From TrEMBL:
Gfo/Idh/MocA-like oxidoreductase N-terminal domain mapped to chain residues: 4-124
A GO MF label: nucleotide binding
Superkingdom of the source species: Bacteria
InterPro entries found in the cross-reference section: Gfo/Idh/MocA-like_OxRdtase_C, Gfo/Idh/MocA-like_OxRdtase_N, Gfo/Idh/MocA_Oxidoreductases, NAD(P)-bd_dom_sf
Organism from which the protein derives: Pseudomonas entomophila (strain L48)
Domain Gfo/Idh/MocA-like oxidoreductase C-terminal: 139-344
Protein name: Putative oxidoreductase, NAD-binding Ros family
Name of one Pfam family that matches: GFO_IDH_MocA
Length: 348
């Protein structure tokens, strides 16, 4: 089958990451055009990755009958507007996470996407990570018993260079930027029932978004997750805090009635270990963690191939607009709990 004629909207760091992988998949995707409202950005990236067309006008992309699929790679504040416009122009849509800045915007995208005859795939790469998928598979196998408690602590890091990540009005902040974690736990455990959380701003400098979060999430299934994360390492970047330790991987365990999963292992290696309480002397099984969570050397190629299968072969998207709505609703509940100092209950 022919390659999918594609346009990418928003030419920042994430676009560059996707283009690096798409350059290896030219038999699947024919990237015809890059678009960014900032003069010169689309042209520079197009020349870097040998893309033939570029524009500052999104409407030009929508009006091009040869473009089959539009990728929304802009900051979250305009995801909904661009995705809805592309769907109404009869384009397939790939949209980076989060789906939108608010749950109200998400609901409108869900309505338009589900009424359309086009493919809509939401870019939560942890769903395409072999390592994250294996963690989910082991938990859902019941080997630990159910329910379980997941305790997850991410390394302190700086965050991406985009100012949108650190600007609450543009949809940034640790909760919204890391809705991929919220999507992953709901993918693993099902819908959330209750949230109790505290968020705050610790990063120095002119940032308006909360960069640090601690949240306890109870699920309808009876499972529970404790999430702690901070992007407060202003000015330090990734390498001093992360490289040589565990990349951007978390430290976590999953505790059940019959056993526990632990990462990293007792030697600090990038290994997921399974311990059983009836045989506690050593792990009964273990898996080497091959990649960082959702990085482009693992999840992005799988994600791209899945999008091709959805469009050309009718494969159902594994992450749809309604999944994005659920993640943003959970993020909003975390922020509301932090603001009010009270638990927030969600409708399953």
């Amino acid at each position: 089958m022919s390659a999918i004629r594609t346009a990418l909207i928003g030419c920042g760091t994430v676009c560059d990451w996707h283009l690096e992988e798409l350059d290896k998949l030219r038999d699947l995707f024919d990237v015809r055009c890059l678009c960014d409202s900032v003069p010169g950005k689309a042209q520079a990236l197009a020349q870097k990755w040998r893309v033939g067309g570029w524009t500052e006008d999104f409407q030009q992309v929508l009006d091009d009958p040869l473009i089959e699929c539009v990728w929304i790679l802009t900051p979250p504040f305009n995801h909904a507007e661009l995705a809805i416009a592309a769907l109404r122009a009869n384009k397939h849509v790939f949209c980076e996470k989060p789906l939108a800045k608010t749950s109200a915007q998400c609901q409108e995208v869900v309505r338009v996407a589900e009424d359309s005859q086009r493919v809509f795939l939401l870019g939560y790469p942890m769903r395409f990570s072999a390592d994250a998928g294996n963690l989910r598979k082991v938990v859902q196998s019941g080997v630990l018993g159910r329910p379980v408690v997941l305790r997850d602590v991410w390394a302190v890091c700086k965050g991406a260079d985009s100012p949108a990540i650190h600007d609450a009005e543009l949809g940034g902040g640790v909760v919204f930027e890391h809705t991929h974690w919220l999507d992953f736990v709901t993918w693993m455990f099902g819908p959330a029932r209750k949230v109790y959380a505290s968020t705050r701003k610790l990063k120095l400098g002119p940032t308006s978004a909360h960069d640090t979060v601690i949240a306890v999430i109870d699920f309808v299934s009876g499972d529970q997750a404790l999430w702690s994360e901070s992007w407060a390492a202003s000015g330090l970047g990734w390498e001093p805090l992360c490289v040589g330790r565990a990349g951007i991987r978390p430290t976590f365990d999953v505790v059940g009635e019959q056993g526990v999963l632990q990462f990293p292992n007792a030697q600090g290696e990038k290994v997921l270990s399974l311990y059983r309480y009836d045989r506690p002397e050593k792990p009964v099984d273990s898996w080497t963690w091959q990649h960082d969570w959702g990085t482009n050397d693992d999840a992005f190629p799988n994600e791209h191939r899945h999008l091709y299968a959805c469009i050309r072969h009718g494969t159902p998207p594994v992450c749809q607009a309604r999944d994005g709505l659920r993640a943003v609703q959970l993020a909003e509940a975390i922020l509301e709990s932090s603001r009010s100092g009270q638990p927030v209950f969600l409708q399953p």
